[in-house]
Amino acid sequence: MQNVIKIPKIDSTNLYLRRLLNKSDLPSFFCVSTDFQTSGRGQQGTIWEANRGENLLFSFLIHSEKIPPDKQFLLSEIVSIGICNALKNNGLNTTIKWANDIFFEDKKLAGILIETIISGDKMKYAIVGVGLNINQMEFSKNLSNAVSLRQILGKKLDCQVILENILKEISLLFENFDIRNSDDLQKKYFELLYRNSGYHFFEKNNEKFYAKILSVSSDGCLKLLTDKGLEKNFYFKEVRFML
Prior knowledge:
Elements: E1 4-10, H1 13-23, E2 31-37, E3 56-63, H2 73-88, E4 95-97, E5 101-104, E6 107-119, E7 122-132, H3 149-153, H4 159-176, H5 182-192, E8 200-204, E9 207-216, E10 222-226, E11 231-234, E12 240-241
Parallel strand pairs: 1-2
Antiparallel strand pairs: 2-3, 3-7, 4-5, 5-6, 6-7, 8-9, 8-12, 9-10, 10-11
């Protein structure tokens, strides 16, 4: 596959790709994948754990100028929808747990970390890191809600084939994206959203409440309606689902 390099062991695919970008220009969808990360990164400094050689760990570059910085969550929607589309090609229906975790039922299948480089009033580049559980059969106790494709489908899968499919689906969505028609993208994102109907328990600052999702805005703000009739807005990590 063009513009994909594989490195057996690395600190972090996001960090490695950023170092490459600092040295030279890279084309959109240039991708770095690895069998093992020594410093795999999740959202807001968390660690992404994965057994060596059993999962997909990769980062790719997007020239993202056509998405305004104040609406950069649209890029997160493109990436998460693209991954769901690719997994559907493997016969698996998945959802997106706000903001951009990929879930199968109530289990976490993949995580996404997007780091942007802004120049002036444009989002010049985005480095998109993805960790997707493919063939791992056992997870540590602190990852009690993790699941892999092999556990779900009952068979071993080819990581590289899935990687190619994911990049293909995301690039197709990105190339066809027009900011003037972003409502279509947001509608699709909401259709795939985990717990997008009915009331569910949420938690903020150790306080639990019952609410349903009304919408997710282009800047990533989650709007909830509580069972008391109150509308509440939250940004990433300000509220969490009770699983």
